């Protein structure tokens, strides 16, 4: 992130010791990235200044933090140079995650789409409400742009925990073979046409006018494995059984409302704009495998490093503010 003062930039240096799988450098982001080998970083998490026209500190008497006041022109220039340098070190199948507030997303998205062929927003609902807002809508959403060089990139399906209401309403049925299950659609919706064929199970014949969502061979496999739910009434549809025991969670969507910000969670705050470790763990698990290399070039308190250690990844950190050194070290004390 940019310096808070007009004092000279710190000399590029490596800070040690931190952790066997974490290294911390102190210096300007683009200068640090120049020291890295091109096409070697599997994931980059970038949580830069937001262009929010504010100063961020830990409290009224604290000097820990940074300034975030720009013109739109200087902010775009800053992002352009930063993204250009980071693009060169990211692997072709890697992912860059760019974190920004919803109110400040326009300029970053413009710059990101200039460099990356695929830019997908993830909507993080970071808090439940804003009770102190009097004359505007409460800001509860941050945007995390998921950026990739190519369509075929590293991606792992990560699940979100099922909430109690979902469990109660979805897994009402059960059998002696595998326990509770919910119903999955097999018949194509009426406005479309699916695979057209007649199918028989337990002496009943099904031939929906709109067709089936899956091929006959797949439906046969479900029948052979006793994974079909027959309607109690003759006019009902055939469903597949989705067992609770085989589904630890629902696959992540692009709306994340199950991870709260530090201000509404149980995690202690180490830096003014620190993000929760759980959020970084999810980003890392989606885009990397064990042992992969993760870069956070504006690391602040080092949340990314904690998440990397927890998920067995290797982490490179950099920041321009000298005050972060002791804060990052405290995570591994």
Q: In words, what does this structure look like?
A:
With 333 residues, this protein is an alpha/beta fold. It has two domains: 13-160 and 251-330, Rossmann fold, CATH 3.40.50.150; 164-246, no CATH class. Helix content is 23%, strand content 28%. The protein is built from eight helices and 19 strands. The protein has helices spanning 29-33, 72-89, 106-115, 164-170, 216-224, 277-287, 303-311, 324-330; strands at 13-19, 22-26, 41-46, 54-57, 65-68, 90-101, 118-125, 141-148, 159-160, 173-175, 179-185, 199-201, 204-206, 228-229, 239-243, 250-251, 255-256, 293-296, 314-319. Helix 2 (72-89) runs parallel beside helix 3 (106-115) and helix 6 (277-287) crosses helix 7. Mean pLDDT is 88; it is low at 1-7.
List keywords for this structure.
Rossmann fold, single chain, 2 domains, 4-stranded antiparallel sheet, disordered N terminus, 333 residues, alpha/beta
SSE topology:
Layout: E1 13-19, E2 22-26, H1 29-33, E3 41-46, E4 54-57, E5 65-68, H2 72-89, E6 90-101, H3 106-115, E7 118-125, E8 141-148, E9 159-160, H4 164-170, E10 173-175, E11 179-185, E12 199-201, E13 204-206, H5 216-224, E14 228-229, E15 239-243, E16 250-251, E17 255-256, H6 277-287, E18 293-296, H7 303-311, E19 314-319, H8 324-330
Parallel strand pairs: 2-19, 3-6, 3-18, 7-17, 18-19
Antiparallel strand pairs: 1-2, 4-5, 6-8, 7-8, 9-16, 10-11, 11-15, 12-13, 14-15
Largest sheet: 9 strands, mixed
| Cα distance spanning the termini | 25 Å
Number of domains: 2
Number of strands: 19
Name the CATH superfamily classification of the largest domain.
Answer: Vaccinia Virus protein VP39
Number of helices: 8
Structural class: alpha/beta
Secondary-structure element order, N to C: EEHEEEHEHEEEHEEEEHEEEEHEHEH
CATH architecture of the largest domain: 3-Layer(aba) Sandwich
Mean pLDDT: 88
Rg = 25 Å
* Widest sheet: strand ordering: 1-2-19-18-3-6-8-7-17
Quote the CATH topology of the largest domain. Rossmann fold
What sort of overall outline do the alpha carbons produce when their principal axes are compared?
elongated
| Sequence stretches where pLDDT stays below 50 over 5 or more residues | 1-7
Share of helical residues: 10-25%
């Amino acid at each position: 992130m940019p310096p808070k003062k007009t004092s000279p930039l710190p000399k590029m240096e490596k800070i040690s010791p931190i952790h066997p799988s974490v290294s911390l450098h102190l210096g300007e982001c683009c200068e640090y990235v120049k020291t890295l080998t091109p096409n070697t970083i599997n994931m980059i998490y970038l949580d830069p200044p937001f262009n929010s026209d504010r100063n961020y500190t830990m409290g009224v008497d604290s000097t820990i933090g940074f300034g975030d006041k720009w013109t739109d022109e200087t902010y775009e220039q800053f992002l352009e140079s930063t993204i250009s340098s980071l693009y060169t070190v990211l692997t072709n199948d890697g992912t860059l995650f760019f974190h920004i507030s919803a109110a400040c997303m326009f300029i970053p998205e413009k710059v990101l789409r200039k460099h990356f062929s695929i830019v997908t927003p993830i909507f993080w609902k970071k808090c439940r409400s804003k009770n102190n807002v009097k004359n505007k809508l409460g800001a509860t959403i941050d945007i995390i742009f998921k950026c990739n060089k190519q369509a075929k990139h590293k991606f792992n399906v990560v699940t979100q925990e099922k909430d109690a209401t979902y469990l109660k309403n979805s897994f009402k049925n059960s059998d002696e073979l595998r326990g509770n299950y919910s119903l999955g659609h097999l018949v194509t919706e009426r406005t479309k046409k699916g695979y057209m064929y007649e199918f028989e199970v337990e002496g009943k014949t099904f031939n929906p006018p709109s067709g089936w969502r899956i091929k006959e061979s797949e439906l046969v496999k479900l029948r052979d494995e006793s994974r079909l739910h027959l309607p109690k009434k003759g006019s009902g549809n055939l469903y597949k059984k989705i067992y609770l025991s085989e589904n630890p969670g629902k696959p992540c969507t692009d709306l994340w409302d199950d991870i709260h910000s530090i201000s509404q969670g149980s995690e202690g705050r180490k830096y003014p704009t620190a993000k929760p470790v759980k959020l970084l763990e999810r980003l890392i698990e989606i885009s990397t495998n064990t042992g992969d290399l993760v870069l956070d070039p504006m690391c602040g308190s080092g949340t990314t490093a904690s998440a990397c250690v927890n998920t067995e990844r290797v982490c490179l950190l950099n920041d321009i503010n000298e005050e972060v050194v002791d804060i990052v070290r405290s995570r591994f004390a």
